[in-house]
Amino acid sequence: MSNVLSLTTFLPLLGVLLLLFIPKDSKGVLRNVTLAVTALTFAVSLLILNGFQTNAEFQFVENVPWIAAGPFMMRYNIGIDGISLWLVILTTFIMPIAVLSTYTAVEERVKEYMICLLLLETGMLGAFISLDLFLFYIFWEVMLIPMYFMIGIWGGKNKIYAAVKFFIYTMVGSLLMLVALVFLYFKGMEAGITDFGLLHFFTLKLDLATQIWLFLAFAFAFAIKVPMFPLHTWLPDAHTEAPTAGSVILAAVLLKMGTYGYVRFAIPLFPDAANKFAPLIATLAVIGIIYAALVAMVQEDVKKLVAYSSVAHLGFVMLGIFAFNVEGISGGMLQMLNHGISTGALFLIVGFIYERRHTRLITDFGGLSKQMPVFATIFMIVTFSSVGLPGTNGFVGEFLILLGAFESTLRWWTIVATSGVILSAVYMLWVFQRVMFGELDNPKNQKLADLNGREIAIMVPLIVMIFFMGLYPKPIIDKMEPAIKKLVSQVRVSTPVAQAQSIQPVVALPAEGQAPAPEAGGTHETSAPAASTPQGTTTAPAVNPHDAK
Amino acid sequence: MENLNSYLIVSAILFSIGTIGVLTRKNVIVIFMCVEMMLNAVNLTFVAFSRHLGNLDGQIFVFFIMTVAAAEAAVGLALIIAFFNNKQSIDVDDVNIMKW
Amino acid sequence: METLFFLIISLVAIVSAILVVTLKNPINSALSLIMTFFCLATYYVMLDAPFMAAVQVMVYAGAIMVLMVFTIMLLNIRVDASKKHSHKLILGSIIGFFTFLNAFFVIYRSRAALPTGPYSGEMIKSVGHTELVGREIFTNFLLPFEVTSILLLVAIIGAVILAKKKI
Amino acid sequence: MFENVWLIPLFPLIGFLINGLFGKKIKNEAIIGAIGTLAIFGSFVVSCLILMQMIGLPAEQRVFEKVLFPWIHCGNFKADMAFLLDPLSCIMIMVVTGVGTLIHLYSVGYMHGEEGFYRFFAYLNLFCMSMLLLVLGSNMLVMFIGWEGVGLCSYLLIGYYFHKKSAGDAAKKAFVMNRVGDFGFLIGLFTLYWWFGSNHNIWTINFTEIKAASHLLPYGGVVTVATLCFFVGATGKSAQIPLFTWLPDAMEGPTPVSALIHAATMVTAGVYMIGRMSFVFVKSPETMMVIAVVGAATAIFAATIGTAQNDIKRVLAYSTVSQLGFMFLAMGVGAFSAGIFHLMTHAFFKACLFLGSGSVIHSMHYALHKIHSHDDAQDMRNMGGLKSAMPITFITFLVSTIAIAGIPGFSGFFSKDEILWQAFSNPYHGNLNVVLWGIGAVAACFTAFYMFRLVFMTFYGQCRINSKAKEYLHESPFVITIPLMVLGTLAVLGGYLGMPKILGMLPNYFEHWLEPVFEMANEYGGKYAHHGAHPSHALEWGLMGLSVVIAVIGIGIAFTMYVKNTELPAKFVATFPGLHRAVYNKWYVDELYDFIFVNPCKALGQFLWKGFDVLVIDGVVNGVANVVMAFSGVFRYLQSGYIYNYAFSMALGVVVMLGYYIFK
């Protein structure tokens, strides 16, 4: 039980070993074994969920020396908190679905494909659980390679271009990150830190200039992965060319690496710089939302449209994260999960029709509702989840993000971003209408078969999650909230407002006096108006540091 | 027994001649022979130093070099034959497919 | 006496080496190379390393050169007198010269360390060179020695695969 | 019974799930229809019980909140899945479930034999559930679920005939325009939440909590911003200027849908929302004025368009927009209970009108289908003289038309007259009151005109349908006519719940009932009201008489033009061709929006994609790659492929490097 985290991470790797002993012609066995391995990984990851305590600490920590090379001391240091927990679960949850979706989609080099999938899973899980910067970097790069092969080998017409673009874009970012990482390490050595442990670096006090440069390097790497405007152009190409399972994983998990990187590394490591750059990043995020929505609107290729919608969704996530308050970041985290589920589902849906018709052009479709009612229903649910209809998961995340951002200093950004909600309805409904509604006039579409049992089985868990997270997100938010509160306190602790606040003499009652402390900023007191009427108005401006003008 | 330096000078001369041979000859087999000559020049250095320092390690090394040279000869000549089978020539001018 | 002998051997070695490089016919080059190898064997004897000399003669002059000559014969290449057998003579010579110059300067400007090892000339003579080498190989260098056998095996397989047209 | 309030939305949900998941397997229309109708009827029964219980309580205890389960709790933010029962929501659930039940019943007959019968009932139940969530929600977010949920159902139901392109377009248009409104709603919510939270540390979106704290809100300022945003939301949902164009297009949906969603319930959500948050709205005089002006403008604007439409349902749609304008006018002048009253009476008579038109279309469709004609079954120019063929439909339709036209004794008179009187006598907007009243009165005249135009064109005169089809025209079955009769009755009697005091026959039950809900709003409103002399009773009598006269004039014009002298309309068109074309084409608002918003958006999208994404960003990215490629294209010639060249460079390198170290 103590090393269940390692077990989860490396189970897929064991699966790879197992696959090596299976002849490559027995495709069915290969697929089933891979499915079994990923399902087992999911089951094991549920143990983590089960044993997770709701607090802000890192849990399931394993910390052993690994490589000692000259001045560098790298450790195998892993653990999860509320932030990474859900991303780990999301990864293990998506993987069996992705594997199941390849049963008929991939017929060539099945063995290699499955090995790539499993390697990818190990890489992704490893990146989410690493508490050692260097270990994180290694897993970060490990992810890249199987994905590169998946696009480059099993991709569409323009696969080489897309694969290389994806690879080089990401590589440029991660090399910058590597430089920053080494620099940070030497900075840490001056302060007496002897390894790459993330938690040590949290205590490191850096001057603003250093923070800015390091933050920029990290932020750049993560911004490419997110991807943020204007570094997003690899995404549509990669998505369009990648095979379905590749797109699903890319959208559902890989993109989250970027946003996760901000939450876990870039922001808490360099809080002052993060504060300084928040308006800039929020601006880019908002531009991304509107820009991607407008571009998505005029796409002719369904998959490209979904890819651009990803850019817009992740713009929301970034906006939420840079609101630097509990609501915003929780919303951002939720939206990461939501995006994983609904966009993953959208890519699966595109995959279904692509498998049947071998085209993704919107104009080739029309009126499919008549021929494929089950498909139509599922597509519609997923569409509305992506649009963010209340009751589905998309809403909760988007709402919390916008609420959090509105509360923070990013008010005007929020208003612009909210209009993205309108645009998302425009492009999603328009494509839905063009694909599903209208006359069934294309003769090739008239013989289309509805979804089969396997395909429905793929979609059902996703749809269940769509409604579960939309109607009862409490367990998810509760588990991550302590960690997010901790993150918020890390970001705010060095802002001048917060310092001024702690100096402020507390005249009110003890119970009241705690309220202005940043840690307690998240407590909600319904009785506050009644209790605080005497001081309520005078102390009010100090209660919300993020609200400072 | 002669001065160490004399052996080293001879070795250097042989090595240089081998280098010139490698660089100027066209016949692959001759080039190959020149490489062997350079190896031998080095061997001489090893043995001379070994004798001078009273340490047998150098000679053991020579022994291994000889093994490697034998392996190299086997593989290299096989390559030459394979090349000849393809091109009907053993001229280095004809080996030019390793480019852009 | 010994100096004279050394000089004669050196002269033979260098001349035959030059011949290797300059002769047109590869067979002649090969024969000259054998001559050089013999000279080197002589040096080894002069350096109190008779076992190395024996191995030199057997492996180089014997095995390797025979292989070469075989190859030359097998390929049966006509020496075309009209065709140049060398190129870039000047550039190659300059580089060769500078190689020598580098080596010479190293030798000229540095002094060798004093003897440190236990194997003096007398000791070798009393115990026997072959025995000493054998002891070294089968004690301290056992693993590399065994690995060489694998290297040779690989080389054999590689040679067979490369040279055969159809396997 | 209050504890069981969650049953109200639960029943339709169950109906939706059964029909949605298994409807295709059930196949039997009777069972499907029964499930759908019983589900909403169950809610109606529960609503009745709740209403009974609430009537039995003293006025100040008529508030009840039921928390079902925590929904989003995050940081300071807290939103529960919770329901609020008070007199206002009680009225709304009664209207929704009552009218809903009738329309479900009607649909069983109307949708008979349609492909996807089960789908229709599933959507209808889902709609009822969403609408009930909207009216029952105890905080803005639950309301917002319903708010968007009804939008979704509207989308699904407008797009019910999805194979028609126009239906798909209309559905999308409706959803997107609603989304524009939702954008406003969200911003309003954020503003209010943020203001309360940051200034008073009250982090809430709960209606009762906000109401309790509403004395902290300033007049104007931030409240104006928030309420204007909310009002944008209301205009989207309730089809007011500028977001009204989706509603006429929404008539692509089946007629029961138009009756339920686009007349009786969903479109009134905006009015309900303003009523629900009246205590906030009334704190901003500016917003109140905007609401009143927009309401009045919509009322007259839509009414003018309604006069020239030929599609029976479109006339009714513009009429709905216009009547909603009246409701907003009422809200804007602080006559909240009058607005809600009109909402209720409108639900009765407009539902009846739509269902009646549905009955006509049903019959027309059948007749045209029998002779294989492709004439438009909804075009009034193909109708005429139907009163003998469809007597029940005719009578109920006529009753409702009289009600909407504002003839005394019918429900529409009481509610509309109350609104006009309040608009005239309201103390909020200074001298604007006369203008508001005047516009309202003219709109009422137009209403009477186009509604009677509709009646005359449809039921009177010569039957213009293909003579062969004539014999197939028939009265609809009971399952259709029973709801018509019930609604027709309500359209007559509903008004007596809220008789103006001046008539004095019955007390104004309605206003009394809603008093606890709006008392705070009236109190706040009183702070900035102009305390002029109260208009006298004589004036009220006079105005009432005037509005009756206006209605009669409208009817008279319609009678002259469409019964007595049928060439007049054509002459009129010939005299003012430009005006007619403009009115007929809805003042070109759709084209204007296409020109201002839709096309630029598409063009911008194209430009950003092809111009910016592909040219600029990818241009830079690929440009860097190309520069590298160009360099390597030159440098690659260094790799000649000749081994001796490589050997040379290697030897040279070794020599130079060694030489550097040796001769250094």
What does this structure look like?
The complex is a heterotetramer of chains A (549), B (100), C (167) and D (664). Chain A is mainly alpha-helical. Chain A has helices at residues 4-20, 27-51, 82-101, 110-129, 133-154, 159-190, 198-202, 208-225, 234-241, 244-269, 271-297, 302-321, 326-357, 368-371, 373-387, 393-407, 411-436, 453-471, 474-492, 496-503, 510-514, 528-531, 533-543, and strands at 59-69, 72-80. Chain A has a two-stranded antiparallel ribbon with strand order 1-2. In chain A, a hairpin with a 2-residue loop joins strand 1 and strand 2. The model of chain A is unreliable at 495-549 (pLDDT under 50). Chain B is mostly helical. Helix content of chain B is 78%, strand content 0%. Chain B is built from 3 helices and no strands. The model of chain B has no long low-confidence stretch (mean pLDDT 88). In chain C, helix 1 runs antiparallel to helix 2 and helix 2 (26-46) runs antiparallel to helix 3. The longest helix of chain C has 26 residues, at 50-75. At the B-C interface, helix 1, helix 2 and helix 3 of B face helix 1, helix 2, helix 3, helix 4 and helix 6 of C.
In short:
The complex is a heterotetramer of chains A (about 550), B (about 100), C (about 170) and D (about 675). Chain B contains 3 helices and no strands.
Number of helices of chain A: 23
Sum up the overall morphology of chain B in one term: elongated
User: Do you know the CATH architecture of chain B?
Assistant: Orthogonal Bundle
Q: How many beta-strand elements of chain A?
A: 2
How much is the average pLDDT of chain A? 83
Keywords, separated by commas or semicolons:
heterotetramer; B: mainly alpha; Helix Hairpins; C: 167 residues; mainly alpha; Four Helix Bundle (Hemerythrin (Met), subunit A); 3 domains; globular
Write the layout of secondary structure elements.
The complex is a heterotetramer of chains A (about 550), B (about 100), C (about 170) and D (about 675).
Chain A: H1 4-20, H2 27-51, E1 59-69, E2 72-80, H3 82-101, H4 110-129, H5 133-154, H6 159-190, H7 198-202, H8 208-225, H9 234-241, H10 244-269, H11 271-297, H12 302-321, H13 326-357, H14 368-371, H15 373-387, H16 393-407, H17 411-436, H18 453-471, H19 474-492, H20 496-503, H21 510-514, H22 528-531, H23 533-543
Antiparallel strand pairs in A: 1-2
Helix pairs in contact in A: 1-2, 1-4, 2-3, 2-4, 3-4, 3-10, 3-13, 3-18, 3-19, 4-5, 4-10, 5-6, 5-10, 6-8, 6-9, 8-10, 8-11, 9-12, 10-11, 10-12, 10-13, 11-12, 11-17, 12-13, 12-16, 12-17, 13-15, 13-16, 13-18, 13-19, 15-17, 16-17, 16-18
Chain C: H1 2-22, H2 26-46, H3 50-75, H4 89-109, H5 121-127, H6 129-139, H7 142-163
Chain D: H1 7-26, H2 29-56, E1 64-74, E2 77-85, H3 87-110, H4 117-136, H5 140-158, H6 165-200, H7 207-213, H8 222-238, H9 246-249, H10 255-264, H11 269-276, H12 278-281, H13 285-306, H14 312-332, H15 336-370, H16 391-405, H17 411-425, H18 432-459, H19 467-470, H20 478-493, H21 509-528, H22 537-564, H23 568-575, H24 577-584, H25 589-635, H26 643-663
Antiparallel strand pairs in D: 1-2
Helix pairs in contact in D: 1-2, 1-4, 2-3, 2-4, 3-4, 3-10, 3-15, 3-20, 4-5, 5-6, 6-8, 8-11, 8-13, 10-15, 13-14, 13-18, 14-15, 14-17, 14-18, 15-16, 15-17, 15-20, 15-21, 16-17, 16-18, 16-20, 17-18, 17-22, 18-22
